[in-house]
Amino acid sequence: MTTGKRSWVRPVVAIAVSAVFFIPLYYVLVNVFKRGDLISTEPSALPLPPTLKNISAMLTRPDGLYWVSLTNSIVVTLLSILVLTVLSAMLGHYLARSQKRWTKALTMVLLAGLMIPPQVILIPITDVLRATHLMATLQGLVLFNVGYYVPFGVFVFSGFIRGVPVELEEAALLDGANRMQVFWRIVFPLLKPATASVLIFLGVWIWNDFIDPLIILGPSQGTTVTTGIYRSIGQYQADLGSVFALMFLATLPVLIFYLALQKQFVKGLTGGATKG
Description:
Structural class: mainly alpha
Number of strands: 0
Distance between the termini: 36 Å
Helix content: over 70%
Number of helices: 14
Order of helices and strands: HHHHHHHHHHHHHH
């Protein structure tokens, strides 16, 4: 293939792939501002004239579905990623610095955890949560998220920590600092790109999770933004305007969260390519 052909093939492929991913976003954006009776008949048409009735109706629902779902999702996501960040950073630091043989076995166990889909272990997890009286609680869902996603955070942090000079830690130890002070005051401040990557990846995954909150919380005990969309659809009919409005509103918090950490996230991706 000549250089001239390569110059236009890559942009065309990039535009085509981007268009495939943009189609679902287009349908949400045009239908959230469209009258409900036009969504089923003209789903791809532009919202002319646009209306805010769908969003207003969702925000003012008598059962407060959106606000309850939003509160639960924020609580579960924030608690999960905060606990995951602390545990993953500390365990990743230990694995990166330890020379003991059994740490290799622990690394293999964590690697196996990355390979197992959460749906495979969901039934045993519900048995454990039921035995500990945490089934159908937000605490149980947070513990499930922490237990399942901690391997990912460990591998991200351990890769970055291997790029931090160990001489910095040794100097701090000579100055009288203990292990915890060395980690939190010397090492952890250097892991901002890795922390941003872990927060964004895990935050988006936990926020968008559907099957785990549906099973653990139960259809009648609680709801998140994803299960709230499921609950807004009736058995025989659905208010499509409300459904699209809820999907749109559910996307805004995680989009704002991503934009706030975007610079550190990009640094984390580029830095991770040269560390570990």
